[in-house]
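[job 0412] stage=fold_complex status=start
inputs:
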Amino acid sequence: MKKQEFDRRDFLKTAVVGGAAAAGGTAAIATPEVAQAEQPAAAAEAAAPAGYAFLNLDEAAFVEALVDHMIPADEISPKGTDLGVNIYIDRALAGAWGKGERLYMQGPWKLGSPSQGYQLPLTPAQLYRAGIAATNAHCRKAYGKPFDRIADAQRQEVLIGLSTGKITFDNGPPVRVFWTTLYQTVIEGMYSDPIYGGNRNKAGWAIIGFPGIIAVHRDHVAQYRGKPFPSKPVGIADMS
Amino acid sequence: MTTKLKEVDVVIVGLGWTGGILAKELTETGLKVVALERGSPRSSENDYSLPNIRDELRYVVRHDLMQNTARDTITVRNNPQQDSLPMRRLGSFLPGEVVGGSGVHWSGHTWRWTDMEFKVRSNYEERYGKKFIPDDMTIQDWGISYAELEPYYDKFEYTAAVSGKAGNIGGQIKDGGNPFEAPRAREYPLPPLTPILASEMFTDAARNAGYHPFPRPSANASQPYTNPDGSKFGGCQYCGYCQRFGCEANAKGSPHMTVIPIAMARPNFELRTNSWVTKVLKDSDGKRVSGVTYTNVLNGEEFEQPATIVLLCAYAINNVHLMLLSGIGAPYDPVAQQGVIGKNYCYQTGAAATLFFDGKFFNPFMNAGGSNATIDDFNSNWAFDRAPLDFVGGYVVAGGFNTPLPIGYRPVPSGTPQWGSEWKRATAKWYQTAMVINASGSVMANRYNCYDLDPTYRNAFGQPLMRMTFDYKVNEHRMGGHAAQTINTIAKSMNPTKLNPASARTDPWTVVPYQSTHNTGGTIMGTNPRDSAVNKYLQSWDCHNLFVVGANVFPHNSAYNPTGPVGALAYWTADAIKNRYLKNPGPLVQA
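[job 0412] stage=fold_complex status=done
writing structure:
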């Protein structure tokens, strides 16, 4: 049912442009990895709040590919999109944090030294947008396709390039600042409370055996000293 | 237009630990006291309650209880040659911005700083000679003694429900406590917390290495407790959500559930929240202050609040900022080494190792703010010879956990990939089976580490931001190197499966990541107005009806957490005002 020649983004774009000719012009030949990444688990799909509040089609495809690459499905956990990490990121960027709440945004602007911290004239959402566009531009130049359509090994190469600063953006934000933000949001989407859209079914917490918001360990300290604590994680929604 | 209000006896700027203690103590005398707090009111019942308080994203990552840097921040640089730039979001330290201040989100570590600190220059000169102290190290004696402060430490510990084991009662060394502490009059109000496995393992290893481990004294009530004022505490639940959070069990000693409600119950006390003080007003003769101006941040309205006594009790950084904005005292000039306001800003340093033990379950999520074990052998132990190491100061080492919540704490051995299945497997394997040993080290004052007003950047009220110039010096690098060695020796003796060793810090101080909310100095205390901003009673040398209370009066920073002396000095100042100043208003120490 999900096997398709082009992805949802192409479908939506052609729906807007209209006609098979446009579709033919942009359709990608799906790699096996991409085809696999496009198949959400039925149960998780049912639990996910549908739709994006901030990410556009290109950005959504980037984020989905990113989180599924960084958090692949394996014996440890479902993949990133099944954990809702993409949804977490979208909601974070659409919300107060993404819009720069608590961020001092007055100029003049200078890059400064790394010890002076964040100095860009961008909100986190603007940084994300600029960084995704710049990463996709790099991918098109290097591989002829955007990040979400390149092979797994190429994605790995790109993420290593971003994380080590080997990739640089022409006229874009500093790569390290973009990567730091990107990485932090993926971690937040795995491990923050499920009320924020990620860590679906508390599967992130289950990876490490974190019991969530369980409050009363007064007796457990002695009882479980040196022993595994049997826990089914509890989140805010479970107690609300 | 500014609305001038009716004069009150006392106005308190900021209602955390210091403001709360002074509010409670001074309202006892019948004085009319008004507290102005820039943050909002929050309570244990309504805000720090289950399930919503247990939210790492909201409280740790997004800083829900902290100062909003969009409205007011500082600019930072490592040295005078660098352009200062605004700290655009919080990172290295986290000033609180609610009723209760940073006393809501602290971990509760409560130490008694001793004459090791209060007589720092005399001690080192006497033992090691004048040349041992570098020329640019502007340490000085504080003008106060441990013996004077002892009863006030006691009062704070009994108010805040500190759990611990005494190591020295009246000169008698006690087993299980810190043998290097200064003599105390009596035991802690509560016994130590139940040790966690990581702190027990650290304790054994430290003892085997010849050191003297003890449970870290902390304002986490180890059992239900009623303090001498009648404030009721629940027993600590070891919930793992301590630092950065309000305590739903009312087990963490905090001003919002102790001293503040006592003041609030009195008719001669008034709290105005969302009230942002922009200036302390000097009287026409310049020898007194006449009150403060503040803005109601809910509607922008500006008020003048005249007062007979003004107490600055904001976060340490913000107290100094207000002094500079108000033009009280001569601003410090590091080149000429003249002036006092802004002088001797200090911070802390540290080092840490992560130890991985295959198959050992630490259950890191079960811990209290203070459940780590500690050694003081390289700090208050004066027998520890600094001569061959060539540094002034010291460090404490602790084993256990610090806010081991999963967004911020997922230890993996060095060399593990940052993403993918291998990373996930390592995270799954080691989260529960790793522990941390870390050191917290002192920072000695340096002539170039200081505050002044930034020439470029402004806050939401159109006022200049304060500029912080700070970096670690050779002294701190040497000490950090020694701390890393000590940590690694203890860590290796524990035979971990894998070890991420501690390393000496040599890079510049940076505004990210979080390091410690232990910022000191800027309006330092001392024996004379030439080299200090306030006298030993925290009274301004320039304006005798102005008291500046908080860690901003520390002339240098210790390895210990600052809240013990911050609380004790607040009680000490309250006593001086009640018993001496009110009877005879004027300078309590003649310049």
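[job 0412] summary: The CA atoms of residues 1 and 372 of chain B lie 53 Å apart.
[job 0412] exit 0
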